[in-house]
Specification:
Strand order of the largest sheet: 1-5-4-3-2
Helix content: under 10%
Structural class: mainly beta
Distance between the termini: 32 Å
Oligomer: single chain
């Protein structure tokens, strides 16, 4: 279920809180006015799409969300999860979400669609075996990413390398990207 958020509920101290994306003043006002605004929740991804703007937030154990900001400044929560990446793959807009925290480790790939002038809606495409990271678009159809798989004997974090091509997730040998 999509939840529309009042414009004055989403936008307050962005300059110090959001690390990835330069935002226009109206975008900042919308984000600061979000009813669930928490300074620990960071704006980590931004993509112009659907005649508006997709804003992806990640707050780890404090949660995250995908927000659609239309041209009139109205914000709508499209998906309720930590956003780990937003990419276009051909005609698709894909959102990678997930969390690895306190023994849980989950991830999903979600596809966004829009009907007429409604806000976009999210449809879960793939359940991943862990939290995705290092999401990179390689070409028009291919997205590569890592999935957190746990810890090795020495306590180092381990990742599986994956690709998403034409709707299918495949394993890759060796990771070409590093996260954080």
């Amino acid at each position: 279920m999509k939840k529309t958020i009042g414009t004055r509920v989403l936008i307050a101290v962005l300059a110090s809180c959001f690390s990835c994306c330069a935002l226009a003043d109206t975008e900042v006002d919308v984000i600061k006015s979000m009813s669930y605004y928490n300074p620990k929740i960071k704006l980590v991804h931004k993509l112009a799409a659907f005649d508006g703007l997709l804003l992806g937030f990640d707050g780890g154990e404090w949660g995250g969300a995908l927000i659609f900001l239309d041209k009139q400044g109205r914000a709508t929560k499209v998906y309720d999860s930590n956003i780990r990446g937003i990419v276009t793959a051909g005609h698709r807009i894909l959102v990678f979400s997930g969390l690895a925290y306190m023994g849980s480790n989950e991830g999903k790939i979600v596809e966004l669609n829009q009907v007429a002038s409604d806000p976009p809606s999210a449809r879960e495409l793939v359940v991943l075996e862990g939290e995705p990271s290092a999401v990179r678009q390689v070409d028009e159809q291919t997205v590569v990413f890592q999935v957190f798989t746990g810890f090795d004997r020495d306590g180092k974090m381990t990742y599986a390398c994956k690709s998403f091509v034409n709707g299918f997730v495949s394993n890759l040998i060796g990771c070409a990207t590093a996260d954080n």
